[in-house]
Amino acid sequence: MTAPLHVIILAAGQGSRMKSRLPKVLHKVAGKPMLHHVIDTARSLGAEGIHGVIGHGAEQVRAVTPASDIHWALQEQQLGTGHAVAQALPAVPDGVIALVLYGDVPLINPETLVALVSRVSERSLGLLTVDLDNPEGYGRILRNDQGRVIAIVEQKDASESEKAICEVNTGILAVHSDHLKRWLPQLSNSNAQGEYYLTDIIAMAADEGLAIEVAQPSHEQEVQGVNNRLQLAELERWFQRCEAERLMSEGATLADPARIDVRGELTVGQDVLIDVNVVFEGRVTLGDNVSIGPNCMIRDASLADNVTVYANSIIEGAEVAEDCQIGPFARLRPGTRLARTAKIGNFVETKKADVGEGSKINHLSYVGDATLGRRVNVGAGTITCNYDGVNKFHTVLGDNVFVGSNTALVAPVSVADDAVIGAGSTITSDVAEQDLAVARARQRNIKGWKRPEKKA
Ligand code: UD1
Ligand code: CA
Ligand 1: residues within 6 Å at CB? Predict the structure, then answer.
C-alpha cells in the first residue's frame, strides 16, 4: 500500500506582472480562480490533506476559498519556494507523500500527477520535467553521464552550458514527507537570488542515493504558469479548445470550436448543435438534438431533448422540458420551468414561472411569479404586475386561457380554465372558468372631429 497523499499548493507570490489588486491565484481560468482549479485537482487525487501556502493577499484568498478541507499556512515574506514549503510542513504528517503544486499553474492534469506520485517511494523522488524549445527563465535539469538526474540549477545561477539545457523543472514534485522534513532545514540562500530554493533538495536526494524519477506531462500547457494577462488568456484558450474537443467527441457539432466558452460543467447529449459565441456557465445539461443559436448565454440550466434556442437568448436557472422553443432574444431567469412544447418568443422575460405543456408566450412580455396551465396563449405585451414595491405576488392562469395583447395582470390574481382576457385589459380580480374579462375604457367615436390646423 502506498502512503497517504498530502498536497502543498504554493500561492504566496505577488504576481506583480498581472498589474492587479486581485492576488494572482484568484484570477480566473474558465470562470474559476486558478487556485480553485488546483484545489479541485488535489481533491480529485484523493489527497488526505491539502495545504495552501499564502502570503500576498492572504485574506482575500481565504475569503474566496471557504473550503474547510484546506490547511492554510501563512508565508509572511516570500523567501523562496523552499521556505514556502517549509511553512506548510508542520501540518504535514510523517510517513506521507508530499506533492508540491503551484497555485498559478492551474491546468495540471490529474493523470499526470498520478503517474508522478506512483514513482515515489522511500528511496525515490518524483520530479515533473518538460522539454521546452525556449527554456529561458526556468530551472534546468542536470543529469550525470548515466542520464540520472543529479540537480536543478536556476537560470540565474546557471553557466552558459547549463543554460543550453532544454529540459526544465516544472516546479511540481512529489517526495516522502520524512525526507522533506530532514532536507528543508538544510537549505541555504547563498545563491544569485538570495532565496531558499526548493530545487536544492534534488541534489540532496541524489547525494543520499535516492533515485530521481522523472515524469513528463502529455501537454506543455499543463505545466504552464501564469505570470501576466497574456499567459492567462493563452491558458484560457487552450482550456476552451480542450473543452470544445471533448464536446465534439461526445456528439456535439460546434459551428466553430474556437467560438464557444464553457465556464463550468457542460453535459451534452448526441447531435447537439451549438452555433457561434455561446457561453455556458455553471452546471448546464443539454439533451439529445438540442440546438443553440448564436450569441446565447446559458447558466445553471437543463434543456431536455429537442429543445431549440434561437439567437441572442439568455437562460439562467431554468428547467426546460422536451421540444420547447426559446427566443430569439428571450430571457429566462431563475425559477423558470417550461413543460413540453412550450414556446417563449422574442423579447419575453420570465422569472419563477411554471409554464404548462404547449403554452406560448411569443412576444414582448414579462411573466414572473406565475403558474400557467396547458395550452395557454399569452398575447404580445402582457405583463404580470407581481411587485408592489415591497412584496411579490403570484399570478395563476388555468388551462387554455387566452390572454389578449397588452394585458396587465395585477397579482395576486387568478384566471380559471378556458377564460379569455380582452386585449388591453388591466385585470385586478379573478376570472371564472370560460368567462371573458374585459377591463378597459370603452371606445368613443366622435363624429366630424376637426383636426387642428397649422396657421399659414
Ligand atoms: C520556480 C523553480 C524553477 C522552475 C519554475 C517553474 C525554484 C527555486 N525554482 O522558479 O526551477 O523552473 O518555478 O515555473 O523553485 N512562491 C511562494 N513563496 C515564495 C516563492 C514562490 O509561494 O517565497 C510560489 C509562487 O507564488 C509561485 C511558485 O511558488 O506560485 C513559483 O514561484 P516563482 O517565483 O514563480 O518561481 P520561479 O523563480 O519561476
Ligand atoms: Ca514562475
Answer: 10-13, 53, 75, 78-81, 83-84, 102-104, 138-139, 152, 154, 168-171, 197-199, 225
Element (H, E) at 85: helix 81-88
Domains of the chain with CATH codes:
5-223 (3.90.550.10), 241-437 (2.160.10.10)
Please give all residues whose CB falls under 5 A of ion ligand 2, grouped by chain where several chains appear.
Answer: 225
Residue of 53, 81, 138 to mutate, ligand 1, most atoms within 8 A of C-beta? 81
Among 56, 71, 219, 363, the one annotated catalytic:
363
Q: What is the 3-state secondary structure (H, E, C) of 293-308?
A: CCCCEEEEEEECCCCE
Q: Which three cell numbers, joined as nine digits, stand for 76?
A: 509572511
Q: Which residues pair with 259 in a beta bridge?
A: none
Does the annotation mark 363 as catalytic? yes
| Tens-place pLDDT, residues 370-424 | 999 999 999 999 999 999 999 999 999 999 999 999 999 999 999 999 999 999 9
Q: Are 338 and 357 in contact (CB under 8 A)?
A: no
> What grid cell was written down for 154?
536556476
Question: In 130-142, which positions are buried (b, 16+ CB within 10 angstroms) versus exposed (e)?
Answer: beeeebeebbbbb
> Which ligand ends up closest to the CA of 100?
1
pTM for this entry: 0.94
Strand partners, 299: 281, 316
Angle, to 10 degrees, between the axis of helix 110-117 and the axis of helix 34-44?
50
